[in-house]
Write a structure and sequence with these properties.
heterodimer; A: mainly beta; Lipocalin; 11-stranded antiparallel β-sheet; about 15% helix; B: mainly alpha; Fumarate Reductase Cytochrome B subunit; two-stranded antiparallel ribbon; about 0% strand
């Protein structure tokens, strides 16, 4: 089979699949929400163990896609037990009063090549700001996988107040990385 | 090779520089480990780690210097067992001065905190993050430190004994201003 024919077949297969599928069920157990922050210029990795949300994405109509992600902030692993206790406290997330963070998409722009710019509202600790992130999409078996990363400035959301407000020890920029897996639940379409 | 009459200036300078650095870094280590989490604690931990890397480099240089420069001979008439003890203690001190910073570095890696020298130069993590291993290495770092502290006390005690009881020139070899005219 020559290459041209192969590509044509593959394309037909892909577009055929794309038209048939709408990803509408987030699979948190297969998804990952991690972050990297810098403390004294030492990069430290963390993650959120529990989050949920909704994703509606039709590869044929990507700009009509919607996403809402809610993170259970008490499920944070900031790298050490000491850090986990600290960030739950009032100076950081204040999880007793504000147990979750939420992102709600408002618009999705296609950048071509299955790359998108997702804009929305981020709410953490009672503060809401515009936020946007690049994201890529690729199908993986029966699922759709959305990946991306963006920089969140912790001071915008009052994360690290008082003695932590100075960026000399813990940097303002926190890199958020996500890998969200969504499936297409039959009958939900 | 013949033993020289005295230590080189380099050997004397390095001895006291490393001595001051070790006593300071050891004291800071004792103080910082019980601090509640705060930006100051994170700063002090970083400084402690930078100091450890610096001591390691200085000691590596010292060791090379020691291996290429014979120290002055010990006093004539010193009992053979003291010769052996002094020799053993010195090499053990060198071993600990190398092992203590190494154990700190490995402990940091196992606990998931990379060492970034002066906040600029990231040292590789030889160990992956592993909570249990981190705790074990913390115990190792402490044990090595207290062993070294004990040995340093014995080392200083022996030097003082030589000076005040035996009244020989052993301490003056490292503190030339004590030399009798």
């Amino acid at each position: 089979m020559n290459t041209l024919l192969k590509s044509a077949l593959l394309l037909a297969l892909l577009t055929g699949a794309a038209h048939a599928v709408e990803y509408n069920t987030l699979r948190p157990e297969q998804s990952r929400m991690t972050f990297v922050y810098k403390q004294m210029n030492v990069p430290l990795e963390g993650s959120f163990k529990r989050f949920n949300g909704q994703i509606i994405f039709d590869p044929a109509k990507p700009t009509l896609a919607k996403a809402m992600i809610e993170i259970d902030l008490a499920s944070i692993d900031a790298g050490s037990d000491e850090a986990n206790d600290e960030v739950a406290g009032k100076l950081w997330f204040n999880t007793k009063q504000f147990p979750s963070a939420r992102f709600v998409s408002t618009s999705i722009k296609s950048l071509g090549n299955n790359r998108f710019e997702v804009a929305g509202k981020m709410s953490i600790k009672g503060r809401t700001h515009d936020a946007s992130t690049p994201a890529t999409f690729h199908p993986e078996g029966a699922n759709g996988v959305f990946e991306g990363s963006f920089v969140l400035k912790r001071a915008d959301y009052g994360l690290g107040e008082g003695m932590w407000a100075d960026f000399g020890t813990v940097a303002n920029e926190v890199q958020i990385k996500f890998r969200l897996v969504a499936s297409s639940a039959a009958g939900k379409k | 090779m013949r033993h020289p009459a005295s230590y080189t200036r380099t050997a004397i300078g390095l001895h006291w520089l490393v001595a001051i650095a070790i006593v300071t870094t050891f004291s800071v280590g004792l103080y910082m480990s019980d601090l509640p989490l705060s930006p100051d604690k994170l700063k002090i931990y970083s400084w402690h780690k930078w100091a450890g890397v610096t001591i390691f480099l200085l000691v590596a240089f010292r060791l090379m210097w020691r291996l290429t420069h014979l120290p002055p001979a010990l006093p004539v008439g010193m009992p053979a067992w003291q010769h052996t003890a002094a020799e053993a203690a010195h090499w053990l001190l060198y071993a600990l001065m190398i092992a203590v910073p190494l154990s700190g570095w490995l402990m940091s890696s196992a606990k998931g905190f990379q060492t970034v020298y002066f906040g600029v130069l990231p040292l590789p993590d030889l160990l992956a993050k592993n909570k249990e291993l981190g705790k074990t290495l913390e115990t190792v770092h402490q044990a090595l430190n207290f062993t070294m502290a004990g040995l340093v006390l014995a080392h200083a005690g022996a030097a003082l004994k030589h000076h005040f009881i035996d009244r020989d020139a052993v301490l003056a070899r490292m503190l030339p201003f004590l030399k009798k005219a």
